[in-house]
Write a structure and sequence with these properties.
The complex is a heterodimer.
Chain A: H1 25-158, H2 164-178
Helix pairs in contact in A: 1-2
Chain B: E1 13-20, E2 23-28, H1 29-45, H2 58-78, H3 86-103, H4 115-137, H5 155-199, H6 202-208, H7 210-246
Antiparallel strand pairs in B: 1-2
The chains are: A mainly alpha, B mainly alpha.
Chain lengths: 179, 250
């Protein structure tokens, strides 16, 4: 280090090197101690606790928000599950109601069908019976009509009415031959 | 005189205050810049955080980034117990960083280019390490100088080397910062001087002056890097030394 100069300020251009001029040291030390101590106290007591609390508060807030978001998410998932379940239940109920209704209607239709069918069968049978009766009656009259006609024809041809039993026998034979 | 690269380190008495035991105490340009540093650091870390905003503004973000950066540095290199020294390391880092960066402003004064300042800061760290080491560990602090697993016949030599390296720490710690700042500012001033000299040689000189101008621009960027880096180096070395005081057994 340079020798301490007697001057408080080295004039410009002198060969001495300012950082090594020891006469400046006391006041530099004095002001360094003062300002550094002041800055240290300001940082230690004011700035750093404040920034630390800001950061802690922020991370706490973020953690709280995340927790809240998680619980909201769980709630919404539960609500969604409940909704899905009620939807499934409703669908199943609708299905069962529909199938019951369908079965009931099918049974009713079946019963109606059977009833109508039986009625129709009955009517058909009655009609057939009456047709058969009418036919039998008609067939019974055929012999009488044929005898009358035959006796009338014979009377016109020969001028004399044949005996009734002869006509009846002839008609009977004719009918027998025709089958 | 304008081109004298040493002139920028000149201490000038702005206000003489007192003389204590033959030593003059004066309000100098150095003192002024130390106060500017305190004001600037306080403005950033106290002024910008008054709102305590949960969503920070720009300056508060910067303050928080510095806080977390220094806290992480201290915790990584000196452990959780090292966080006791967090306010000290933080103050030291900010003081040196602001001194270095403010010093880069043209016509300003660089506090950290004064050897006595860096020596005082390094000695503070040194005595803090020694004081805390003995207070915390008593004589076990001396285990710092006795590495484990060293053969007994070379142990004396190792101990001597360890002690010497420990004692020279404040020297390297302070001179590293001082020399970096001093050399950088001298280099900048010399190249800036070339510009003025060449510009005095007429038109050709003016074109020639473009070269040192380019150098000054480039060096300014480099010096900004150096200013930040040296502040960081000063702080991290402080952390490493404090780690020795906290965990002397390696």
């Amino acid at each position: 280090m340079a020798e301490p100069s007697t001057q408080t300020q080295a004039p410009a251009g002198q060969t001495s090197f300012p950082p090594f001029e020891t006469q400046n040291f006391p006041s530099q030390i004095f002001w360094l101690v003062l300002t550094f101590a002041l800055l240290f106290v300001l940082m230690w007591r004011v700035a750093l606790p404040r920034i630390g609390s800001i950061l802690a508060e922020r991370s706490k807030r973020i953690a709280d928000d995340l927790t809240a978001a998680q619980s909201f998410k769980e709630k919404s998932e539960a609500a969604n599950a409940a909704y899905e379940k009620s939807l499934t239940d409703a669908r199943a109920r609708a299905q069962s109601i529909a199938s019951a209704t369908h079965a009931r209607q099918a049974a009713e239709a079946e019963a109606t069908n059977k009833r109508l069918e039986a009625e129709l069968h009955e009517r058909l049978a009655a009609a057939e019976r009456s047709i058969a009766a009418t036919r039998t009656a008609a067939m019974g009259n055929v012999g009488t009509i044929a005898s009358d006609t035959a006796s009338a024809l014979v009377e016109r041809l020969i001028g004399k009415a044949p005996a009734d039993h002869e006509v009846a026998n002839a008609v009977g034979d004719a009918l027998k031959r025709r089958g | 005189m304008q081109i004298d690269p040493i002139h920028q380190f000149q201490i000038t008495n702005l206000i003489p205050i007192a003389s204590v035991g033959g030593h003059e105490i004066a309000f100098t340009n150095s003192a002024l810049y130390m106060m500017i540093i305190v004001a600037a650091v306080s403005a950033l870390f106290i002024g910008a955080t008054t709102r305590r905003a949960v969503v920070p503004g720009r300056l508060q973000s910067i303050a928080e980034v510095f806080y977390e950066f220094v806290a992480k540095t201290v915790r990584d290199s000196a452990g959780t117990e090292g966080m006791k020294f967090f306010p000290f390391v933080f103050t030291l880092f900010m003081f040196v960083l602001f001194a270095n960066v403010i010093g880069l402003i043209p016509y300003s004064f660089t506090v950290t280019s004064q050897l006595i300042i860096t020596v005082m800061l390094a000695l503070t760290v040194f005595f803090l390490v020694v004081g805390y080491g003995f207070w915390r560990h008593g004589l076990h602090f001396l285990n710092l100088f006795v590495p484990k697993g060293v053969p007994i016949y070379i142990l004396p030599a190792i101990v001597v080397i360890e002690v010497l390296s420990f004692l020279t720490r404040p020297v390297s710690h302070s001179v590293r910062l001082f020399a970096n700042m001093l050399a950088g500012h001298i280099t900048l001033q010399v190249f800036a001087g070339f510009i003025i000299m060449l510009a005095g040689f007429g038109v050709i000189g003016m074109f020639g002056a473009a070269l040192p101008l380019f150098m000054v621009v480039t060096l300014s960027a480099l010096e900004l890097l150096v200013a930040v880096l040296q502040a960081y180096v000063f702080a991290i070395l402080t952390c490493i030394y404090l780690n020795d005081a906290i965990h002397p057994g390696h």
